[in-house]
Design brief:
alpha+beta; single chain; about 375 residues; N-terminal domain of TfIIb; 10-stranded mixed sheet
């Protein structure tokens, strides 16, 4: 039996109707007869999978597989053609496709096991450095350019559920307050001290969302009460407090919970701040520790996706490339969710990289006997290491 290439099978996983809708919405193929939006996406996806650094490298690589172009929907291409399309096709097309693919991933992760009962998210950002002389629209410092990827990361599914891309100089708190990050009642958001802002805290409180963060060293509190804590486990105290500074208290007048935790491995005391008064103190500490997963995610995409060297210099070209990289991450996660592949995301990406133009069923490429998903798969297996 003849199969299409692995690349073509990856493309079939995409939500095709939503892709077409995005193309129509942003009119990216209007008056275009040759090398349309989907062709550009194929080229971007190929560049991500095969780790291509330049347009020349992409064209040379694709020319080695010219006999298979028809099956992946592209025709004869030139560097100038890709460059023109990079500036023509709005990055919002791929942004919309990302969220459509995200919905498809969520539809198959509803029954997965998870350590915590509440939906748990990590909020953080990561800077991608750019050369200011080449990317003059991305000014960061006097002689440095950069963009910043802000992500709300689902710690159950291990995939980002919301992304915002700004210039690197945008503050994390400002983006968190202005952008429409999805807030689910009874969910928990954990973030580092860069997001400590009392107006932000109040917005979470109003939305019935719990937060877990670290207290800044200069914060002063009024002690309202103490809670009993189990001995050992590193817990030092569990207090009910209120902000002491009148101006800060005006922004967040409610009570807070302050937990002292001593990490024996690092020989350091951490002060955790939360508006959740029900969970055990040690669970609050574990939730903040789980925040590290988003740091691993940022590290992984920077090391294994093409988001540090770009195929174009315009803002549109850069953002398009980042959104396609995010889509590829979802494709890898989707394959993991749908199969019994037990290796890491890194191993999966390496296998796909080597077999991209194989005419073989993806299940066979991965060395799996059955495409059926395992029951109650533990989501922690979706590791990036």
């Amino acid at each position: 039996m003849k199969f299409s290439t692995v690349l073509n099978q990856l493309l079939q996983f995409l939500p095709q109707n939503e892709f077409e809708s995005a193309i129509k919405l942003f009119k990216s193929d209007r008056y275009v007869k040759y090398f349309k939006t989907k062709s550009l996406f194929v080229v971007h996806l190929y560049a991500q999978v095969r780790q291509k650094d330049s347009l020349r490298d992409i064209v040379c690589g694709l020319e080695q597989h010219e006999s298979k172009w028809y099956h992946i929907g592209i025709e004869k291409i030139k560097r100038s053609t890709i460059s023109d399309a990079n500036n023509r096709v709005p990055y919002q097309v791929y942004e919309n496709l990302f969220y459509a693919m995200l919905k498809k991933c969520h539809n198959i992760t509803q029954t997965t096991k998870f350590k915590f009962k509440n939906p748990l998210y990590a909020l953080d950002s990561s800077i991608i450095d750019l050369c200011l002389s080449v990317f003059d629209w991305a000014k960061f410092r006097r002689a440095k350019g950069g963009i910043k990827l802000h992500s709300l990361f689902d710690l159950k599914t291990q995939i980002p559920t919301f992304n915002v891309i700004t210039t690197a100089k945008e503050s994390d708190v400002k983006v968190a307050k202005q952008e429409a990050f999805p807030l689910i009642p009874d969910s928990i958001i954990t973030f580092d001290r860069a997001y400590v802002d009392f107006k932000l805290f109040q917005s979470y409180q109003n939305a019935k969302v719990f937060f877990v963060t670290r207290a800044k060293d200069n914060l002063r509190f009024e002690l309202l009460g103490q809670q009993k804590i189990p001995k050992k486990k590193g817990l030092q105290f569990d207090q009910i407090v209120q902000i002491k500074n009148p101006k800060q208290r005006q922004k967040y007048p409610g009570k807070l919970r302050l937990i002292g935790y001593f990490d024996h491995n690092k020989n350091k005391t951490y002060l955790f701040l939360t508006n959740n008064f029900k969970l055990a103190a040690i669970t609050i500490a574990e939730i903040y520790k789980a925040r590290w997963q988003i740091e691993l995610f940022f590290k992984w995409i920077k090391q294994n996706l093409k988001i540090k060297t770009f195929l174009g210099t315009s803002k549109n070209a850069v953002l398009s490339q980042i959104w396609v990289a995010m889509i590829y991450t979802l494709l890898l996660a989707y394959i993991k969710f749908q199969t019994s592949f037990s290796g890491s995301i890194l191993k999966l990406s390496r296998i796909i990289q080597e077999s991209l133009f194989f005419r073989q069923h993806l299940i066979d490429v991965l060395g799996l006997r059955s495409p059926d998903p395992p029951e109650n798969k533990d989501i922690t297996q979706l590791s990036f290491c």
